[in-house]
Fold each of these.
Amino acid sequence: MKKYQIIEKKLTETTGDVAQVYVYTNPSVEEQRYLVETCQIDEHTLASALDPDELPRLEFEPEHIVMIYKRPKNYSGKDQLEFKVASVGMFLFEEKLIVVLAEDIPLFVGKRFHTVSSIKEVFLKLVYNSISHYVEHLRIIHMISEEIEDKITESMDNTYLLNLFSLVKSLVYYAEAITSNGFVFEKARNLSARIGFDEKDEEMLDDIIVENMQCKTQADIYSNILAQLLDARASIVNNNLNQLIKKLNVITVWMMVPTLVVSAYGMNVTLPLSDHPDAFWMLIGICLILVWLVMMYWRHKNW
């Protein structure tokens, strides 16, 4: 648990007994008991803030306001290009803000936190930063997809296809999370007076809603592009396979033509040219002429 105090319009970490912002990262059993019994936070709501599959929502309790929203999860190399989302719970009281999340991430970073005047502003800027986090991840996904697109045209390996599938799956999760967040932000805007937002806070909330919509559009565009790339890749693989089978069939037919002639002259019966001293070379010549005629016929038919 970390505590922060707003001092001279800056959010400063403190070790004192009194603070305005409390951040609980993967809280222990004792900390959860304190939040439930002392802070009067609903036990189910607290568990929802730590559940990555929980849907975003905005709730009003007698002593505080609850917002659970989705943010991008820290990426790990073992995820194999699969970007995931996590939940964050914010509990806004009259005099303090409690933030609960499952993993440790830098929350109060970026130019937005250079100046802070109230805990409601901290509340909104944390949401704003999560949208920026989505935008950064979308940019990274786009860069990775372009690299895979360059490699996938030169390789028949399925690894790149699986990587693209992981990126498409990540974008679907991101688009769903951003859409769900948008519903919560719209609800907060409609109930801004009940929450206690002033005019400046409402303007920031409007900016958050617009940024979130743009982020959703960007995620949808990237998802559609990658889905079409996967379809195109499947068509390319099928076309390459057809071309390979065609070449193998051509080689097989070429081999059948001389094989037919040689097989006929392998029978134990009287055959033309059987007594001719140059019969072998004449048969080879006949086979080559037949192969050449077949090639000319295929070329004429553009096969």
Amino acid sequence: MGALERMMMRKGDRNPIQKAVLLAGTAAASLMGAVAFGGYAKGRSVRAQAVVALLWATRRRRRFESAENLKMAITKNRMAGAAPPPKSVKRRWDVTEEQHHGARVFLVRPKAVAPKGTILYIHGGGYVFDLIGPHWTIIAALAEATGAQVVVPLYPLAPEAAYRQGFALLEHLWTGLTAGGAPVAIAGDSAGGGFALALAQRIRDAGWAKPAALLLFSPWVDVRTNDPLQAEIQPHDPMLFMTGVRQAGEMWAGGDDLQSPMVSPIFGQVDNLPPIAIFIGSSDILMPDACRLRDALASVGTPADFHEYPRMFHVWVGAPVPEARIALGDAGAFLKRWLHGGA
């Protein structure tokens, strides 16, 4: 078990899904062995195989399979609220909370030393679900790798709000974070990845201080979610289903054009952006749009690192699997390079 997994398994920090995943992965490795279970031969580790099996068994994507399921899942999510920072994060970093524009914003800072830059982290959840436990895993890994402070806004969610309210908060945060001239990177997963790209485009167009880098995990860059290739991937995606994902995007648009760059940033200009790293799994229905973004960036010469993980699922970087350690290591190195002057 690696350091990241040990952190997630500490008493009081683990949630039932993480615990089940870890136990399932260990059992699979012990009982069946890497070769018998497929190991990396089929593109996924033993632990990742166990995670995928658990996701299918618990019908994780059910919340996106119909409008009624999505509505019920949103109601349940509001009752639960955002996942608080776990004890392991509080032990390792100073964690404080502020209020900005009526929204909660977490600040995760190194203890006893000055932070080396800032990461604005925008969490995923289809723009309708709040921050969950695995997001803290990603946040902690990036903080550890870079020595930066991580700013985590709990932005307004749909359907109670729409993208304009979300942008009002993040634009306010951005101007404050960059006022002193220190480097600030933007990172996000899923909807947060799409939001991160849209925010970077907005920052460029407004002439504000440019982000040091842009890190996107499984980014959702076209809320229409109507690519025929997505329908081909859908039977293999244990996390997402096109019907509900598209409806969540419509909620975030709030009646505006789904092809507005502030809603679907793939339709915005992608030149004059900071260095970008994209991480995507091939069993994710968002894969085709991530490839479209990669190709658009290449066409205008915007530097971009594209990391495709065979048969990995949506935002696997938050799961206790070897592929997450590898991806988070690469992501952390990417951010560190640009936050520390591009060295």
Amino acid sequence: MLHERFQAVDKAQLARRFGAAARHYDAHARFQQEVGQALLAQLPQGQWGDALDLGCGTGFFLPALASRCQQLHGLDLAPGMLAQAARRGSGARLLCGDAEALPLADASLDLVFSSLALQWCECPQQAFAELHRVLRPGGRVLFSTLLDGSLWQLAQAWQAVDGKPHINRFLGQTRLREALEKSGFETPIIEVRPWHLGYGQLAELLRDLKGIGASQVNEGGQEGLGGRARLVRLTQAYERFRRGDGLLEASYRVALVQLQRA
């Protein structure tokens, strides 16, 4: 890697996990779709030339993007996700690849859209440098990513059970800005939004996380629930986060970011 590593990620395992989730991903991706729609709403009006949906997943946003550009690429690390994306009929050229080593030529894109994909990078600054490399002068990037503090309720509940990490690490806002600036994006626009979801039971949240393939990927993680007894303890520990409306709250901190290459 050219830059400091933020986390150790087994890319092959990550691709398998998301690929295995591909067929039922959309049924569990309410939050991901909401964030992507919010990001899409920030896309300036008009037609774009060559565009990329980075971390396109099942291709949920490919049709909307295809209507706004002349040539669209969809890239994902997981072949299983790309197989689902191919069924969208968007006309996008689908590529299997890594955000930290984009299989695209220098200065070949006018627009990059990426929603909730870059938080899985081993070295975010390397990915941002790749975005800078493939953009043409004046090219734009719109991306969303998770910040530290996301799923803090689940993290605290796990601490009460076994004191071990079960939640992925995410960049803080200051570190995100520093990584972007070091990658060549001098004036990033970063909007941070809290996102609060409600679940009737903890099992519903856990099913969503498993259903989208977003279980622990950081080094040293404690995978799985480890038996019914620990799940019972986790459920009990999470009860203190039940809201007045009767739902259990799961909170995220989302960064909506706009970049432009000089």
Amino acid sequence: MTKTFAGARLRRLREDRTISQVELARQLGISASYLNQIEHDARPLTVPVLIRITELFGVDTTFFAPHDTPRLVHDLREALPPRVTVSDLTELATKLPEVAEAVIELFRRYRQANDQLAEIVGDRELVAGRSPHDQVSDFFYRRQNYIPDLDEAAEALAEKIGVRRGETRAVLADRLAERHGIQVTREDASALGGELHRYRPETRTLYLSTSLRPGQEASRIAAQIGLIECADIIDEVIEEEQVDDVQTQILMRVGLANYFAAALIFPYQRFLTAAESMRYDIELLTNHFAMGWESVCHRLSTLQRPKARGVPFSFVRVDRAGNMSKRQSATGFPFSRSGGTCPLWNVYEAFNAPGRVMTQIAAMPDGQRYLWIARTVTRHLGGFRQPGKIFAIGLGCETRHASRLVYSDGRDLDATGAATPIGPGCKTCERLSCAQRAAAPIGRSLDLDENRSTFIPYPSRRGADTAVDA
């Protein structure tokens, strides 16, 4: 059982109510010295004491739940100078998570202000670092890829209109026609000018390309329903984010509509039950719901409803060149925001075996381990001479959850040699002895000598830096 250390949060509760340690200890029925040890994280919170605290202060037990430390540490590394050590960042994230989140939020606002200044002065190079796509990705990352209001609205609608596997597209098309007077029409891709779908409000017609598969058609129809029936919820979410840029607003609206679509096609409780019973076997889930691999993986990464949580997954989509077009996470996996991702990650190995499921136990520099599942998906719009698209889809979770997945069968998750040492990205990775490194680590002094060469492409100066290996 995981021990709960929450001294800083308990001390804050006590001080906010101007209660002394002696008085609080008396009300909790424990000694003042024991309370002092709890507040300084020398002793963990026991269940009986935790229950008495929640009753006394009127807070939920989740107030003391452990924060996502790996995620906070990674975000702090980008917000603070390199001279701040990882151990200091970990201590801050563990003992003062609210302060850590405040620092990260200040850094986020600094980047936004910098972007706005760059827009004003016309510095396009600065603006390029924070595109609308980046901002929307960051939005879903901060929300841990879970939007409760949209999820619950979609589940309620699915129950109301009777969304059933095998009949999803027909049921959704009927909803558009009967409730909104919108007809769904399939058109040849050439007639749509290469577009996959187009909604024309003047004729109340939703045109879908014939190149779309049934599951993709269902997703487009469901997203259109979301844009109409959940417009108020979507507007409120965007308003909360205080997004001023029109392009970012549009992309965020599309992202939220697609989120609603997945939640409508895969109703939360029904999908979670199926995922648990099938031990998160993605192939079985795609067959059961008649939807694609990417759609199922994306939905698996959103199952974070309180008191009904699925496995907390990170989801990523990359191409052969390493470009990350999607990154969403319900866990603390530290996606890189300052350069390419790690070439030792199995999402890239998937391109060598198209269509085959690849698994990997990956160890991060901080010692955290993840089980990653990766597979390629392909898309084609036209005929023989038309170029298609190929991506690798990755889905990962911490190894402490891996026993719930069929992909962990027969693997020793704790064996030292079983894990591949990877990092968040070459510029921020602490594995200084990695021979695969493609960029010098930020803030590190290199040991350069014109009279010698090394197998490691960016050797660090001895004594100045310490390599971190799994």
